[in-house]
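Weekly modeling sync, notes
Attendees: AB, CL, MP (scribe)

Item 1: holo prediction request
CL wants a bound-state model with S-adenosylmethionine before deciding which constructs to order. AB pointed out that an apo prediction alone won't tell us much about the pocket. Agreed to run with the ligand included and paste results into these notes for async review.

Input as submitted:
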Amino acid sequence: MNKIEMEYSFARYLLSKQSVDDRALNKDVFNSLKSHLPQKPLRIIEVGAGIGTMVKRLVNWGVVHHAEYVLVDEMPENIAHAQAWIPQWAQEAGLSVERSAEHHIRIFDTTRDVNIQLVQADVFDFIQNNKTPADLLIAHAFLDLLPMPESLTKLLTLTNGLAWLTLNFDGVTTLEPTIDTALDAHIERLYHKTMDERCTGGSSKSGRQLFTHIRQAGAEILAAGASDWLVYGMNGKYPQDEAYFLHFILHFFEESLKGNAELDEDVFADWLKKRRTQIERGELVYVAHQMDFLVKKNS
Ligand SMILES: C[S@@+](CC[C@H](N)C(=O)[O-])C[C@H]1O[C@@H](n2cnc3c(N)ncnc32)[C@H](O)[C@@H]1O
């Protein structure tokens, strides 16, 4: 898979991210989520939900049995992908599938019944129109893209109780083996700076900042913990589609840093080439430090 023949598909990136996220999710926070979930049919709203990998995970991991699950994402391509992909994995998992209306998918068997609604919208427009708050709000790999603290206050209006806020980036990206210590550190610093300067908001230290933002938004932290992405090869190979995941991470580096006045173009191109070769050899190790939270809204 070299750069010439590589097609960068965001949907495939989200698919390739599943096994990385499965390992990363903080299991103490996850166990706390399971013990706090009310024992009744749930209403769940997931914001910035992409193609719906979290609903698949929660059904497969036995967390969601009977639920109305609203999945909100602003990208029409993600909603279109979810529309085709959700029935596919559900059937493969032995679930029956019914489409009650456009953008409504029911997946069920004798013990499970989940009604999924796909909503293509900017989350802040969705908040204005949503009539029924959820038992659980989920924001997975999303909050570090938003302006804070105001976004959190608005998002928490979507829940009557719990919020599971996962994979919030927190200031450390590590790529091994080293290419050049000073250059690696310089590129990491510039990459994080692009997260802090995005016009749509976001922060490279979102994880640690959430401790303050959550308190200020009038919510209580029930559990918190690290959820680092850690990707490494074994015997020269990465599991699942994780080589693609790594290529996409380098694509993010390339897209955010191209034309950066603080980075020589040729030096950066050479660095990217060396990093891509490390992926091809199964040598590249990637760590991104992130944090998960389970939060309860104070009534
Ligand atoms: C990093 S992706 C994570 C997707 C998904 N949670 C996952 O982990 O597979 C962030 C997602 O947020 C969506 N997004 C960004 N800003 C948004 C907004 N203002 N309203 C709704 N969705 C948004 C993007 O379209 C994208 O799918």
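Recorded for review: The chain has a mean pLDDT of 96.
Action items: CL to compare against the apo run; MP to circulate these notes.
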